[in-house]
Amino acid sequence: MNIKMVVTDLDGTLARSDSSVCPIDIETLKRIGDSGLCRVIATGRNYFSACKVLSEDFPIDYLVFSCGAGIMNWKTKEIIQAQHLSKEQVEKIAAVLLDHQVDFSIQDKIPDNHHFSYSLRNKDNEDFKRRLDIYNGYTRLLNVSKLEEASQIIAILGKDTDWFDELSRKLDGVKVIRATSPLDGKTLWMEILPPHVSKSYGVDYLCHLLKIGRNQTVAIGNDYNDMDLLTYCKHSFVVANAPEELKKKYPAVASNDENGFTHMVNKLLHR
């Protein structure tokens, strides 16, 4: 097959359940890089968080981070694309979320989007408190009089998908993405981004930059926030630990803990 780009999600796909990447999958990335393929990780993590998993010399070419809000040339560490919500958009979204007593964070502009302001109304929101612990030292309480541009807004909702759909309808002119918490693997997150931002947008940007056709791309993911990416790429797979809804739509390979990425590469590129 005339494949020129391989794109993988990070958490739950390339990364194992303990957030490490298996040496077998690292060797696979090196192998396909030696074959001339462009290697891309497309993740919901910000750059700061991605660096907790990826070493400085990790064998990829590009990092699409924060669900596509930022794109980095991994070898040079140059940010080649960054998009933000305007001050007016942030103010409008914050007003809706505060009115509905939703727990949320407003991430600073790229590349400092591991810093954020937050509003926590529900003291039993353990997933939110867990996230505050992880980013201890980089957070501050929300001050609505000091809102500025932001890379994204993350609302941590719980398990009620009906509540997600209802709230989404109140947010106009932005991109709303459903995601499963990478922290506890079950809590529902709502990621609110600039209107044209997504993992598929980031990959499309790279395809145009590198003159790679959409029909020359492969993607693998594990969660709902990968759906636009899986739809965009010509050949798409999910790991065995993906939700049943996704496994009904895309071919499944082994799980993230069983080298699903390498299985996919071997199945599609080296059979």
Structure, explained:
By secondary structure, the chain is of the alpha/beta class. It contains 9 helices and 14 strands. The chain has helices spanning 23-34, 47-50, 87-99, 126-134, 161-168, 199-210, 227-232, 244-247, 260-268; strands spanning 5-8, 38-42, 62-65, 70-73, 78-82, 104-107, 116-119, 139-141, 152-158, 175-180, 188-193, 217-221, 235-239, 252-253. An 8-stranded mixed β-sheet has the order 5-4-3-2-1-12-13-14. The protein has a 6-stranded mixed β-sheet with strand order 8-7-6-9-11-10, sandwiched between helices. Strand 6 (104-107) and strand 7 form a beta hairpin. The longest helix is centred in the middle third of the chain and has 13 residues, at 87-99. It is globular. The mean pLDDT is 95.
Cross-sheet strand order for the largest sheet? 5-4-3-2-1-12-13-14
Overall pLDDT: 95
Task: Compute the separation of the termini in Å.
Answer: 10 Å
Q: Spell out the helices and strands N to C.
A: EHEHEEEHEEHEEHEEHEHEHEH
Number of β-strand runs: 14
The class by helix and strand makeup works out as alpha/beta
Task: Write a brief caption for the model.
This protein is an alpha/beta fold and 271 residues long. It contains 9 helices and 14 strands.
